[in-house]
Amino acid sequence: MEIERKYLVKSIPSDLDKYKCKKIAQGYLCTNPVVRIRKSDDEYYLTYKGKGLMVREEYNLPLSQEGYEHMLPKVDGRLIEKSRYLIPLDENLTAELDIFEGDLAPLILVEVEFDSVDDANSFTAPDWFGEDVTESGKYHNSSLALS
């Protein structure tokens, strides 16, 4: 189960270079239900996501580079490319700051995953977070791939 909140970004932290960064490329084989392939640095995954906004099922399966490359031409819409910065927050949480590339630039989103719905609902976003877009399917990556 994935429990996450998603925000637009008001201002990017000035010290991004001190945080771990992953280069991500992902494409969608299906958007209802969501079936995604992802390359994250040198790791590959096939992911299934159920319906929902803040809370939804998610299953990640390891995928070989060959499997990823075989399915890549089959993606619907655009291949999403982004840099993801992992920024520690209080209470052992991590902000995943996504800076989109290509024709999705200059979009910047930040997500935070939680262990429970109560934790997600009681979360107070840092000042650099912008509008909470958790309840807007418009900002799901599967929607961005097709827009």
Give descriptors for this structure.
147 residues, mainly beta, Hypothetical Protein Pfu-838710-001, ten-stranded antiparallel sheet, 3 helices
How is the secondary structure organized here?
Elements: E1 2-9, E2 20-31, E3 34-40, E4 43-49, E5 55-56, E6 58-62, H1 65-71, E7 76-88, E8 94-100, E9 108-113, H2 117-121, E10 129-132, H3 141-146
Antiparallel strand pairs: 1-5, 1-9, 1-10, 2-3, 2-7, 3-4, 4-6, 7-8, 8-9
Compact summary:
The chain is mainly beta and 147 residues long. Helices cover 12% and strands 48% of the residues.
The CATH class turns out to be Mainly Beta
Name the structural class.
mainly beta
In CATH, the topology is named Hypothetical Protein Pfu-838710-001
Radius of gyration: 15 Å
Write up what this structure looks like.
Strands 1, 2, 3, 4, 5, 6, 7, 8, 9 and 10 form a ten-stranded antiparallel β-sheet that branches. The protein is built from three helices and ten strands, in the order E-E-E-E-E-E-H-E-E-E-H-E-H. The chain is mostly beta strands. It has one domain (2-146): Hypothetical Protein Pfu-838710-001, CATH 2.40.320. The protein has helices at residues 65-71, 117-121, 141-146, and strands at 2-9, 20-31, 34-40, 43-49, 55-56, 58-62, 76-88, 94-100, 108-113, 129-132. Helix content is 12%, strand content 48%. Strand 8 (94-100) and strand 9 (108-113) form a beta hairpin. The mean pLDDT is 95.
